[in-house]
Each structure stands twice: as structure tokens, then as C-alpha cells.
Specification:
Length: 393
């Protein structure tokens, strides 16, 4: 006769089972909404809130803004907004300018309901202050957070970003959107400083640093010369410690603005919205191109939604008339080794490869460097492209 003994809590823990409250206990749920800031937007006030949810199911929450007495909005505001049911997300709410602009520091309530949970918080909003500040085109901490930049990084970099935009004339919506599409991809939303996966000896000892991942001795020297016009003794080249100064503020952000506005003069390309060409100039190929589009659209969502683009047309890019970038466009959309950088796309690969052959007929073999492109020898590159076209058809 066997005896069944109860398995005590210490033994449960010894087996690696952490839930000692019983299997019936569900995961804890949470829902919270917090006011962040308000901005004037045309004849509306844009309110920004952070929704913090945990272990919920629905992706949309019911939102209501109200006062307990004497609503000064034209009506109680209510709507459904998309949230992250298992994390944090910033949401925008556009409200018509209220009638009672002379009311001082009124108190509002916001309610959010998701699944079977609801949460209410109170915030103060002085509409008169919002109106008096006017339409401020400078980016805020919340703007950066909505692009996917961590809060602490947003707080750290917002002022330097705004001054950098002024210094290098990155002042239009398209210029800023295209700029963010590049730097946020290069740095994983400002969480990286120095290029990863490279030793100090790579690129002649000058691997990528700064928000635009400045690379190569020539670029380091040129940026050093630019900064020496203001700070004569600055040193970005003599040692690893000197090179690492580019990762310090304000140079971390400023070096990206200098690369963009002074070295490569990309403002004109941004005005044409030639994002493909900009990515090619910044990267030298199309590494992380899908990520660049993702951050481009995150920035557009904040700065100007009209500039969101799901797919750019290679035939409309300056790259279409460049033999190397045409080969690169085909290569990156074709080869499995780049599938984590750009989604394989047979049609885009064929566009790039066919354009390469068209341009090759114009320039001949002497139009390609002796060492070819991206590890493909000049004497073999045409046969490689031809074979890939035949395979893709």
C-alpha cells in the first residue's frame, strides 16, 4: 500500500515551480494612464498620454476626458485608441480649443477602459499657457519617446537635437523625418554609441561612432577640423580615448548633423524625399534598410503623418542612375545573407540587376573599380548578375 504525501512549498520551489499560490491564480493585470504634455495644433490642442498596461487582451481602449463640473470642451471627449495590452504606448488625443480660455489651471479627468479593467487619473491643463506658447516646431521629450527612443535618452538628447537641427538647417518636416530614419537605425534609437562587432583596428582604427556612426580616418579628421574652428584643441584622432569623445555630448548628435548637412549635404535629397539615396549614402549599401523605413515612419507619425511611406520606388531614386547602387539594390533584395537587413524581394532584385546591366553597357568594365563591388570581382560581376537574373525569372 503506497502513501501519497503532499508536496510542500519548499519542494515545489526545488523543482523550479515559482507559482506557490496555486495554479488557479491568474497573472496580475494592470492598467494606468498618465498625462505627459499638451501642444497647440492648428485649432486643436493635442494631448499626449502614456498608457501602461500589463497582461491585457484587447488592443483598443475606450477613452473619455471630462470634468466633474462645467465641461469646457465642446463636449465630453470619448473615443477608442490603440494601446499595447502588454506594455507602454503613448497616445495622442486632439481636442477642439475650449471656449473658456480664461479658466485658470482647470482640472480634468481621463478614464481608460480595456477588457474588464478601468483606470482614471487627474491632470491639470492651462489652455491659456498652451495658446500663449504658440506652435512650437521644436521637438519635445515626448516626441522622441513616441519615435521609440527610451525616456532617459529622450531627456538627454532633446535639446542637443533641436540645436543641431538649427545649426545644420535640418528644419523641415521631411528633413527631420529622413534624418531620424537614418540615425535611429544606425544607433538602435540612440542606445548604441560605438559600432558593434568591430575591433578598434577595423576601418584603419576608425570604426563607427556617433549618431551617424562616423567611420574612417578621413571623416574623423574632417569633423575634427570643423570643430577646431570653435575649439582649437579638440582631438578626435590621436588615440582610442580621443576617438571616443565623438560619443560624448554634444558631439554624439552634432557629428550626425555635420555628416548630414555639411559633409554629404543631404538636405536637398530629403526635400526630394529620396530616402533610398540617403540610406545608400549613409550606409554605403542597404544594411538595415527595412529598419530605416520603420524609423522613418515612426518619425513621420510624430512630425507629419502625410510623409509616411510603406515602400519607396527605386526607379525614382538617384540610385537608379548609379551603377554601384543599382547592383547593391539587386544584391540586398536577393541574397539570403542580407535577409535580416532587407526582406528578399524577387521583383526589386530584378529591377536592380537589370538596371546594373543597362548602366554597364554604357560605362563598360573600366567603369567599375578593379576590386569590384561588395566582394564581387570586376571580371566576374556581369556573369554573376546574369546568372542571378536567370535564376530569379
Amino acid at each position: 500500500m503506497s502513501i501519497i504525501k503532499p508536496l510542500g512549498i519548499p519542494k515545489i520551489k526545488a523543482l523550479g515551480l515559482n507559482n506557490t499560490d496555486g495554479v488557479e491564480n491568474p497573472q496580475q493585470k494592470n492598467l494606468k494612464i498618465t498625462f505627459l504634455e499638451a501642444k497647440l495644433k492648428g485649432f486643436n490642442v493635442k494631448l499626449m498620454f502614456e498608457v501602461d498596461a500589463k497582461n491585457l487582451k484587447e488592443k483598443y481602449g475606450f477613452i473619455r476626458i471630462f470634468k466633474t463640473q462645467n465641461d469646457i470642451f465642446h463636449d465630453n471627449y470619448f473615443d477608442y485608441k490603440e494601446i499595447d495590452p502588454k506594455g507602454r504606448k503613448i497616445i495622442d488625443i486632439d481636442i477642439l480649443l475650449p471656449l473658456a480660455l480664461n479658466e485658470k489651471n482647470p482640472k480634468y479627468n481621463i478614464l481608460i477602459k480595456v477588457d474588464d479593467m478601468s483606470s482614471t487619473s487627474t491632470f491639470h491643463l492651462n489652455i491659456q499657457d498652451v495658446v500663449s506658447k504658440g506652435r512650437d516646431n521644436k521637438l519635445s521629450v515626448v516626441d522622441l519617446m513616441r519615435m521609440g527612443i527610451p525616456r532617459e535618452k529622450s531627456q538627454k538628447y532633446v535639446n542637443v537635437l533641436n540645436s543641431t537641427f538649427e545649426n545644420y538647417n535640418i528644419t523641415t518636416d521631411l528633413r527631420q523625418i529622413c534624418f531620424f530614419g537614418q540615425v535611429l537605425a544606425e544607433t538602435d534609437a540612440f542606445t548604441l554609441n560605438t559600432e558593434t562587432g568591430k575591433s578598434d583596428a577595423d576601418y584603419g582604427g576608425f570604426k563607427g561612432r556617433g549618431s551617424m556612426q562616423l567611420t574612417g580616418r578621413e571623416n574623423y579628421v574632417a569633423y575634427e577640423e570643423e570643430i577646431r574652428k570653435k575649439i582649437p584643441n579638440i582631438d578626435f584622432t590621436s588615440s582610442t580615448a580621443s576617438k571616443d569623445k565623438i560619443n560624448d555630448l554634444p558631439y554624439y548628435i552634432d557629428s550626425g548633423g555635420w555628416f548630414w548637412g555639411s559633409l554629404r549635404k543631404l538636405n536637398d535629397d530629403a526635400d526630394r524625399h529620396d530616402f533610398i539615396y540617403i540610406a545608400y549614402i549613409v550606409n554605403g549599401g542597404f544594411n538595415g534598410f527595412d529598419k530605416r523605413i520603420k524609423y522613418h515612419n515612426k518619425a513621420a507619425e510624430v512630425i507629419n503623418k502625410d510623409h509616411k511611406v510603406e515602400k519607396f520606388d527605386f526607379k525614382k531614386s538617384y540610385c537608379y542612375n548609379n551603377i554601384k547602387s543599382s547592383f547593391a539594390w539587386g544584391l540586398w533584395h536577393d541574397m539570403d545573407k542580407f535577409k535580416n537587413e532587407v526582406k528578399n524581394d524577387k521583383n526589386e532584385a530584378l529591377i536592380g540587376y537589370n538596371r546594373f546591366l543597362q548602366l554597364y553597357q554604357q560605362v563598360g568594365p573600366t567603369g567599375i573599380p578593379k576590386d569590384g563591388y561588395y566582394g564581387y570581382d570586376r571580371n566576374k560581376i556581369v556573369s554573376f548578375v546574369t546568372s542571378r537574373i536567370n535564376s530569379l525569372k
